Amino acid sequence: MKSFISKRALASGVSLIGLVVLVFFLSRLTGDPTDLYLPLDASTEMRDQFRQMHGFNDPLIVQFGRYVADLARLDFGQSLRQARPAMDVVLEAFGWTFWLAVITMSCVTLAAIVIGSLAAFRVGGIFDRIATFFSLIGAAAPDFWLAIVAIVIFAVKLHWLPTSGTGTPWHWILPVSVLFIRPFGLILQVVRGSMIGVLSSAYVKTARAKGVRTPVIIFVHGLRNAMLPVITVIGDQAAAILNGAVVVETVFGFPGIGKLMIDSILLRDFAVVLAVIMVSALAIFIMNLLIDLAYALLDPRIRY
Amino acid sequence: MAEHLLEVRDLSVEFHTAAGTVKAVQDVSWHLDRGETLAILGESGSGKSVSASAIMNLIDMPPGRITSGTILFNGRDMLAMSAEERRAINGARIAMIFQDPLAHLNPVYTVGWQITEMMTTHGAPREEARTRALDLMKRVGIPRPELAMNKYPFQFSGGQRQRLMIAMALACKPDILIADEPTTALDVTVQAQVLELLGELQDETGMGLLLITHDLGVVAEIADRVVVMNSGCIVESGNAAEVYRNPQHPYTKKLIDAAPGKGEMPDEQERKGEPLLSAIGLHKTYGAFHALKGVDIAIMPGETVAVVGESGSGKSTLARAILRLDDPNSGQVLYRGRDLLAMSPRELFGLRRDLQMVFQDPTQSLNPRMTVFQLISEAWAIHPGILPRARWKERVAELLVKVGLKPDMAARYPHQFSGGQRQRIAIARALAMEPKLIVCDEAVSALDVSIQAQVIALLDGLRREFGLSYLFIAHDLPVVRDFADRVVVMKDGEIVEEGPVRQIFDAPAHPYTRALLAASLDPDPEIQAARRAARNLEEGLEIA
């Protein structure tokens, strides 16, 4: 187990290094941030001074060497835009996105498992048809459109909920609801498909021959077996939100990592871009590790 | 009319499928009394399992529908009971075990949990259920029950898993145990142990045993009465010994005649000259598992060498190693004096056409998206020069006729054929290469006995016609007795005995060979009764 985790950590570390190198040089290709930060009428001297101060005059390789040296001291550089340590900026935003992902995926998982399992129990029944119909619509609906429509209806017309920002629990309802829909549709379909297979399996037949009650057959005998493929998709969808629900966060002005990423790229805030990438890469690594551990927890045949 | 423990009267069940309505069973009637064993005997598709599924309420409706009949359990019609009443009977009063215990045990829960659940489902307190589960596991012969309780199904052997299924089924002391092909997936020696255990438990509890099987030997070993089914109807029923000795219906006669192991064994052939193929000192390991521990084997031209052994003996690994489907770790495989293992891929490619294989399950070994024509002619596309393209059609037709099919079947897909027909297609595909040697890995094990007899006859005819050699991997001794010239007995990756078929069957030297032969069931109930008596006497003497 320990060796499995360290092997995985090593492999992820190598790809993280590659990613940092790649992003460092590619982002520099977009140009010099100086012009974006100084006023239009700033003098050449001022511009030179700005460049000098942030080291943009040095050759790229020197800049890179300095960055790596700082990294070794766990210094991720300064945010140009906010003039404070880039990692502080990123961790603050990550906190928001983290809770957004946790709340959304908890709701999605619970709803998709219960509804998907019941749909699978009577395939082709009325409940199954309704669930499948709505889940397919959900899986297909574009989230930027949903977000805007939701704002128009619930915030602008009905005045039930705030349009954007954070502050109260009410602010969470629209972003979570919009983010909920697509993974819910997808995961419901996976649960349903997996459960249909499991419920026609030989061991479910045994359970029926034992006289086990139907809810126990579905949620005890069936569910644990059906969860294996579902977990993969849940992890994948959670990672997608952690990686930045860019569109939804932007539309709702939600101060998460997706919005931070977009803003930093537009303003060539390189240190922040790199810090975002490292944090989300780490989050995804931990996410995948958790999925693997969940597999082993659910299925005794899997051991690392 | 006297009341029976369980009585099925005029039961008809149909299934509605896209292809139309299938009448699975029609007007089936039988009964079972306390303490007796009734066998329902039939081939695949005969409907032998359907009445048991109806009793256990396991028929999915739709697509299934019970169109007529009653099932009386202690005089009450089960089909008129509520779902909850039937659920309370399942497991508690009527329990069931199945063919493949690995698939029928839940893979993600411990066996202790699963056995305990049988009792808690029917109202037993958890602690009491646990204690009884331990007793049951001890009774069915699971070593160290306290440890075994917390293990998962995959951590047991096939025989142990079936013992665990039996322990679970008997947990609530049911009045009836239904066993659906309980030993079909097991090795012969394990089969004998499981059947013996079932018999003992029946004596102890006085339960009625309903046995569903395709195997005349199993019927002969434990059934009191037998019901023979064909195409959803009962064709004959009565006392098991009576039916075997004096079958009335032509189908029963055919079934009994098809049972392998009664033919004349060939005389010993003198083996001289160069063997067609020989393996010397083959070793193969999978991780820490030593599958082949230095195996030597030789096949002469025109000879059929059978390799018999139980699961895990290494017989399939041997077949794969000889064809280099899996490279052995060390050793030599000489084909006409040249070492296959030392050959370059190009040289080996040239020889592939001489060495062909027929696998156990034709459903899996034939690509479902290719027509029969494509399946057979593919070999000629891979090995150009055997046959010009213009003659493919004609040759495929010839081959199909040769294996007993019709030329116009070439355009069809594998799913449009029965299991036996599919195996014929697989044989035709092997023949397309005009091979010198065909390796048959359990090639007839998945087939019904009557089909099995036909396929064996086909292989035998081809051997005479083309002078083919066969390496015939099998676990079923009667089939080997009918077909092989020589027999090689394997156990744990080693050859324990080898010799002409007559010698192996009439005068086995190694204790393991003797054990295999003793465990192999004879279809004649009287012979089995005599063997049982002899066994009991031996045990009695041991105790004394």
Automatic annotation (TrEMBL), chain A:
<keyword id="KW-0813">Transport</keyword>
<feature type="domain" description="ABC transmembrane type-1">
    <location>
        <begin position="94"/>
        <end position="291"/>
    </location>
</feature>
<dbReference type="GO" id="GO:0055085">
    <property type="term" value="P:transmembrane transport"/>
</dbReference>
<dbReference type="InterPro" id="IPR035906">
    <property type="entry name" value="MetI-like_sf"/>
</dbReference>
<comment type="similarity">
    <text>Belongs to the binding-protein-dependent transport system permease family.</text>
</comment>
<dbReference type="Pfam" id="PF00528">
    <property type="entry name" value="BPD_transp_1"/>
</dbReference>
<feature type="transmembrane region" description="Helical">
    <location>
        <begin position="240"/>
        <end position="258"/>
    </location>
</feature>
<feature type="transmembrane region" description="Helical">
    <location>
        <begin position="133"/>
        <end position="160"/>
    </location>
</feature>
<keyword id="KW-1133">Transmembrane helix</keyword>
<feature type="transmembrane region" description="Helical">
    <location>
        <begin position="96"/>
        <end position="121"/>
    </location>
</feature>
<keyword id="KW-1003">Cell membrane</keyword>
<feature type="transmembrane region" description="Helical">
    <location>
        <begin position="212"/>
        <end position="234"/>
    </location>
</feature>
<feature type="transmembrane region" description="Helical">
    <location>
        <begin position="9"/>
        <end position="29"/>
    </location>
</feature>
<dbReference type="InterPro" id="IPR000515">
    <property type="entry name" value="MetI-like"/>
</dbReference>
<dbReference type="GO" id="GO:0005886">
    <property type="term" value="C:plasma membrane"/>
</dbReference>
<keyword id="KW-0472">Membrane</keyword>
<feature type="transmembrane region" description="Helical">
    <location>
        <begin position="270"/>
        <end position="298"/>
    </location>
</feature>
<protein>
    <submittedName>
        <fullName>Peptide/nickel transport system permease protein</fullName>
    </submittedName>
</protein>
<feature type="transmembrane region" description="Helical">
    <location>
        <begin position="172"/>
        <end position="191"/>
    </location>
</feature>
<keyword id="KW-0812">Transmembrane</keyword>
TrEMBL record, chain B:
<keyword id="KW-0813">Transport</keyword>
<dbReference type="InterPro" id="IPR027417">
    <property type="entry name" value="P-loop_NTPase"/>
</dbReference>
<dbReference type="InterPro" id="IPR017871">
    <property type="entry name" value="ABC_transporter-like_CS"/>
</dbReference>
<dbReference type="GO" id="GO:0015833">
    <property type="term" value="P:peptide transport"/>
</dbReference>
<dbReference type="InterPro" id="IPR050319">
    <property type="entry name" value="ABC_transp_ATP-bind"/>
</dbReference>
<keyword id="KW-0067">ATP-binding</keyword>
<dbReference type="GO" id="GO:0055085">
    <property type="term" value="P:transmembrane transport"/>
</dbReference>
<dbReference type="GO" id="GO:0016887">
    <property type="term" value="F:ATP hydrolysis activity"/>
</dbReference>
<dbReference type="GO" id="GO:0005524">
    <property type="term" value="F:ATP binding"/>
</dbReference>
<dbReference type="InterPro" id="IPR013563">
    <property type="entry name" value="Oligopep_ABC_C"/>
</dbReference>
<protein>
    <submittedName>
        <fullName>Peptide/nickel transport system ATP-binding protein</fullName>
    </submittedName>
</protein>
<dbReference type="InterPro" id="IPR003439">
    <property type="entry name" value="ABC_transporter-like_ATP-bd"/>
</dbReference>
<dbReference type="InterPro" id="IPR003593">
    <property type="entry name" value="AAA+_ATPase"/>
</dbReference>
<dbReference type="GO" id="GO:0005886">
    <property type="term" value="C:plasma membrane"/>
</dbReference>
<comment type="similarity">
    <text>Belongs to the ABC transporter superfamily.</text>
</comment>
<dbReference type="Pfam" id="PF08352">
    <property type="entry name" value="oligo_HPY"/>
</dbReference>
<feature type="domain" description="ABC transporter">
    <location>
        <begin position="277"/>
        <end position="517"/>
    </location>
</feature>
<keyword id="KW-0547">Nucleotide-binding</keyword>
<dbReference type="Pfam" id="PF00005">
    <property type="entry name" value="ABC_tran"/>
</dbReference>
<feature type="domain" description="ABC transporter">
    <location>
        <begin position="8"/>
        <end position="256"/>
    </location>
</feature>
